TrEMBL record:
This is GntR family transcriptional regulator. The lineage of its organism: Bacteria, Bacillati, Actinomycetota, Actinomycetes, Kitasatosporales. SUPFAM superfamilies: GntR ligand-binding domain-like, Winged helix' DNA-binding domain. The keyword Secreted does not apply. The keyword Repressor does not apply. Keywords: DNA-binding, Transcription, Transcription regulation. CDD domains: WHTH_GntR (cd07377). It comes from Streptomyces hyaluromycini. Residues 9-77 form the HTH gntR-type domain. Transmembrane segments: none annotated. Gene3D superfamilies: GntR ligand-binding domain-like, Winged helix-like DNA-binding domain superfamily/Winged helix DNA-binding domain. It comes from the Bacteria.
Length: 242
């Protein structure tokens, strides 16, 4: 069996994570200017070159704005940021996950009803195939990722590409910490049984039942996943530069 190598984290990676956490936690307040580069680099114990690379990444992520002759300013991400920030926000502060899951439940319920009204025969067969992959998953990670694909197909079945992009955004927000959220997927058969009523309703073109089943499924898995975060086993590990 091939073993996937663990990517090495560079000093730039670690500094980016530390700066990101300091920004999102309020150590560097929105609207304020960061200290001059020389001072900031010394404070974090890195070279200015390393600092520049990390700042560039954070600027691309929408957390910073650099203007020549003025400096680097912390942006108010809640005012100017987009949903692409959710993965780093959820990784930095698990309370974001509760809000992500609330939206997941509401959007997922709506998607299931739309999918039941609009799905094609091919999509119905695809959903049934993906549900079997959930049941056949060899481990919790495989089951969880198979579950994700069912929900992507439900979003695709609505015929509305915006629903699919929204679904991707919500999954991207918590997939980086999915190891801490594996509890509903440790028993493949039970995971498939929970999801089956949603698929059956969509395949049967019963929009009302699809919405009801999706609400039940999403609320149940949300409760299990968020509950698992309270245990030491379920807490995401925090990275910090040394």
């Amino acid at each position: 069996m091939a073993v996937e190598s663990i990517p090495r984290r560079t000093v730039v990676d670690l500094l980016e994570a530390r700066l990101r956490d300091d920004i999102l936690s309020g150590t560097h307040e929105p609207g304020s200017l960061l200290p001059p580069e020389r001072e900031l680099a010394a404070g974090y114990g890195v070279t200015r070159t390393t600092l520049k690379h990390a700042l560039t990444r954070l600027e691309q992520a929408g957390l910073l704005s650099t203007r020549h002759g003025i400096g680097t300013r912390i942006l108010d991400y809640l005012r100017v940021g987009g949903a692409d920030l959710l993965p780093m926000l959820a990784a930095q502060d698990p309370t974001w996950l509760r809000e992500v899951f609330e939206v997941r439940r509401q959007i997922g319920t709506l998607i299931a009803g739309r999918a039941a009204d609009r799905r094609t025969e091919r999509q119905a067969r695809r959903l049934e195939h993906l549900l079997r992959q959930v049941a056949d998953g060899p481990d919790a990670d495989a089951v969880q990722l198979a579950d994700v694909e069912v929900h992507r197909e439900l979003a695709r079945a609505t015929g509305n590409r915006v629903y699919l992009l929204l679904t991707n955004t919500l999954f991207n927000a918590y997939l980086p910490v999915r190891a801490a959220l594996r509890a509903p997927f440790e028993d493949a058969a039970r995971a498939a049984d929970r999801l089956a009523p949603v698929v059956r309703a969509v395949v049967g073109r019963d929009g009302e039942e699809a919405r009801r089943a999706a609400e039940t499924y999403l609320a149940a898995t949300e409760k299990i996943m968020l509950g698992s975060l309270g245990s030491p086993r379920g807490r995401p590990a925090a990275d910090s530069p040394r």
